[in-house]
Amino acid sequence: MSLGILIVSHVADITVGVQKLISQTAAQVPVTVAGGTDDGGVGTSVDKIQQAVAANKADELLAFYDLGSAKMNLEMAQEFSDKPIHLYDVALIEGAYTAAALLQAGVERSEIKKQLRPLKIK
Fold this sequence. Notes:
The protein is α/β, with parallel strands linked by helices.
């Protein structure tokens, strides 16, 4: 089963920047993003998240988000997805970057979860 990264932020430019950063280290890891609202404003959209899930060629996704309402929309998208989506309550940039680098190196999801623990946001 292949693993990919999903990044959700209230601002589209943030998701694009994180995706660009990750591509420098983990070019083979599928990364899709959902940033901003449907009309280009600040916020998140379940529809945009679902589109990003569908666009990601991986079988299973590790999801990273910036704020609580993004998590809430990710959880709603999880309910509608046939693809497993694992949410990580960690610092967005550091968490997504670390996970992608570890995926690129062939590290298993269980080990990635352990390595992300120090980045957990309480």
